[in-house]
Specification:
globular
Amino acid sequence: MLFNLSQKKLFLTSLFSAAILGILTWLVKNSPALQSIDDRVLVFFSQLRCPASDVFFLAVTYFGSEGFITAGCILFAVAFFIYRKTPSYILFLGTMLATSNFIYFLKTLTERTRPEMITPAYQEALSSFPSGHTAFAVVFYGLAAYLMASFAKTKSTRQNLLAGWIFIFILIGYSRLYLGVHFLSDVIAGYAAGFFILSVSILLLEKLLSSEQPWWKKLWKK
């Protein structure tokens, strides 16, 4: 197990994340109190904005965009092909496709309008809940760090990968609030969706790699 993750911890993480996501989805559809909190948080972040910071966080948020994630998947495809890690990339790509479809389903289900109290740094087309950028940041960088850690020879390298992943997904989540394109509950739901999918994906990967099926082991060890 990389990063000292046990199957029990991953399973509990997936359950907790699913519960948080379910609760927030219900609240977004039924609770005016949640909207009131979201509005106040949105106003607070709008007061922090300035032109220089806008440019910085526009760059940051790009690293969670669909275009950048797609390019990253292509690069990882090349890397996994070179190192003959076919099962890993199949799961990696499948996880990213599942994330995209799951987020789209939730956006269609809730149809939450984007923040209108303030002027956002730029316009987004799809509904607000949950934050797709945030979910992709958790899943893409988390799974990438997890798989790259399998090549790491030292504990410090694995710890650096873990720290880098945490820093990236927190920063991208913050950027969505700062730029005024999401509410706080959107970002939290994006984290919950991301952790749910990532936990299930890693559980599946560990199951495949520990399987007695010879062809999985053969592909992994090449």
